[in-house]
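Continuing the batch. This is chain 6 of the set; chains 1 through 5 are on the previous pages. Same settings as before, nothing changed between runs. Recording input and output for traceability.
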Amino acid sequence: MTREKSTSEVRVGGINSRRVWIGGLLGFVAWAAWSGVTNMVVLAGRYPAAQQAGQMLQEPRYRFFMGAWFVVLLLLSWVAAWLYAGVRATYGPGPGTAIKVGALLGFAAGFPMAFALAAWATFDRVFPLWWMLELWVGAVLAALIAGWYYRER
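Output for chain 6:
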């Protein structure tokens, strides 16, 4: 692994890692906003009913869940930026490549557990659907924004 350092960039194996980190941070802002829309707008009215029916807890098991969730989204946004930077040499730079990266990452992050919850959980299937969309659409947004920001130099 080669490291070249200048005043404006740090390159690791041909990837401008400073731009990956900043792109991941920018992607996280969009993903966090989308997460807010899915949970505080789309699903907000459904949570109390599921809680009153005993299908969901009134409080999370972990008090730090909200903060940890946003850390997870930040890390996934960084993964999207890093994957985009890595594959753009093969698939070409641009939104098409970013969408593919985001769609694949979002599928891996969101679909398997959403499918299992839809099959086995007692609450309405709309929850796993929107939780899956939160991850899938969020990953695409993060990859698009990171891809827009990323430059080799």
